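To illustrate the input format used throughout this study, we show a single complete record. The first block contains the structure-token representation of the backbone; no residue identities are included at this stage. The design step must infer an amino acid for every position from geometry alone.
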């Protein structure tokens, strides 16, 4: 097409038509998102200031514990570059579709799981996406997944305050944040950034979970603090947020998540399970029945 013919308005009409079509598609997806979220009572965004604090294992164990209590629970992994929820829950294979909608994997106690890993044919495939693509898939995880009616949707976000938590905050307006940290200073410095991020985007903070806290040595019984102790409580008090619980470091939890079987044993037999139950009690207690 020549420059002269283009100036006649054909290109402008084509661009306008494409823009209108895109706007209609966005509005249709917004409607699907709103209808899906309307059937979910509580949305929990599990986030952390930095990696390596056990955020995903906390998210998985929280979701599993809620499901074990009889709640209808979904677990959505939006850590698109490093998804680990599928392995931690023992989910295998690709997701199925039903009438142009994605059917989540359903595991023990009816827990519904969706992870980026379940969309990839090669498990070691790298996801090399920028912001708009990541926002798009997060919106699709909400609009095109058959979550059905849920009491809780637990959303595992990647560490930091980038595209993924921002997309969740913008898309799920009534989400509540559960922030995970360890007691060490470097983690606490970053968790303060996460708290300020939530306040900047008007994301309600349910509280802070201190992970990998002090534990009793199985050999001598003495208390061991691998990553110091008390930092989570001090930070919570300084920043004006609730400390939901301190979860002790437990090698059995690592083995359980690697084996795809989170939450190890009843609370009376396992200190981690007991502390996790305390955090779930605190979360359930801070939300409307």
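Output of the design step:
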């Amino acid at each position: 097409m020549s420059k002269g013919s283009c100036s006649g308005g054909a290109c402008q009409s084509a661009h306008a038509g494409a823009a209108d079509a895109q706007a209609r598609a966005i509005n249709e997806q917004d409607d699907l998102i709103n209808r899906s979220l309307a059937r979910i009572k509580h949305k929990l965004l599990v986030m952390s200031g930095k990696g390596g604090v056990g955020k995903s294992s906390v998210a998985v164990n929280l979701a599993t514990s809620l499901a074990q209590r009889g709640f209808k629970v979904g677990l959505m992994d939006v850590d698109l570059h490093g998804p680990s929820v599928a392995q931690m829950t023992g989910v295998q294979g690709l997701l199925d579709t039903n009438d142009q909608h994605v059917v989540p994997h359903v595991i023990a106690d009816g827990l519904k799981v969706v992870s980026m890993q379940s969309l990839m044919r090669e498990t070691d495939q790298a996801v090399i996406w920028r912001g708009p693509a990541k926002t798009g898939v997060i919106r699709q995880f909400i609009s095109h997944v058959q979550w059905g009616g849920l009491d809780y949707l637990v959303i595992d976000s990647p560490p930091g305050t980038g595209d993924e938590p921002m997309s969740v905050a913008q898309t799920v307006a009534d989400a509540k944040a559960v922030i995970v940290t360890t007691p060490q200073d470097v983690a606490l410095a970053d968790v303060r950034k996460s708290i300020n991020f939530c306040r900047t985007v008007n994301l309600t903070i349910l509280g802070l979970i201190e992970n990998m806290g002090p534990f009793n040595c199985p050999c001598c019984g003495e208390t061991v603090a691998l990553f110091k102790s008390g930092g989570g409580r001090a930070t919570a008090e300084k920043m004006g947020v609730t400390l939901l619980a301190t979860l002790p470091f437990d090698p059995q939890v690592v083995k359980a998540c690697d084996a795809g079987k989170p939450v190890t044993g009843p609370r009376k037999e396992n200190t981690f399970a007991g502390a996790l139950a305390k955090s779930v009690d605190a979360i359930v207690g801070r939300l409307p029945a």
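Structural context for interpreting the output: DSSP finds nine helices and twelve strands in the chain. The CA atoms of residues 166 and 201 lie 8 Å apart.
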